[in-house]
Hints:
The chain is an alpha/beta fold.
Amino acid sequence: MLAKYKLIIPWSAALMLLGTYFIAASSASRTSPRVIRVFVALAVNQHQGIIPVPSAVGNGQDPQRNLYWGAAYGVKTYFKASEDWKLVWSGGGSKNAILQRCVFKSSKNDVYLVADAYEGSQIKMAVTDFLSAAAGIAMENVSLKIHSEEVSFAAAGDADVIVYVGHDAFMDFQIPPIAGTRGDKSRRTIILACASRPYFGPYIRQTGAEPLLWTTGLMAPEAYTLKAALDGWIAREDDEAIQRRAAQAYDKYQKCGARAAMKLFATNR
């Protein structure tokens, strides 16, 4: 007959085991947020080959009213007005060329969006920083306090989606390619600029990033297209569904026709 034994654990050891369990459980349940990084080159009539816009929205030193940032369909204004996003921080940028930075938090998901407004005359720096992030070689950590809670996350080359919004700079000049590697983590790019696929294509291939959405012709790089595409990405839809969302949003505001809008946007495939 087998003897019955009772396992007795000292109270101090039991507390230690219990504490270890809760630490492990907390670590397991805590995941890193998904991060979107947006580089915006402010519209400016003098330094960019754009179709001239009214001076009030074409001042590259005035983010508050700029066409791509502070105007009704600019990145800051449009996302701030959306119920799906909450502006959790706004202030100066990490370098002089960045006139303003905004950090948004998704209202329903653990997703952050960090957007930088570059002075219009500094468009070369904006696209260089964008490509450096797409290549995975630019590193930056963003830390902020939200409701007394410290939040910190990587928001450059470690971002999940890296976005450029503005004039297609490579219609005006070239820069040396920036080489990257694919790495363990997929880096997706969205480029909202005129004909971004043919002009940005050689650069993106060098970075090793994977295009999620870009364009085939002339377009208005306004924020409703970006939000629609990100809605699909957050919902983990496939690339074709994200392309459709972008095209539908663009047609809604530009009235260009559904077929034309679909032809305007492309995915990696």
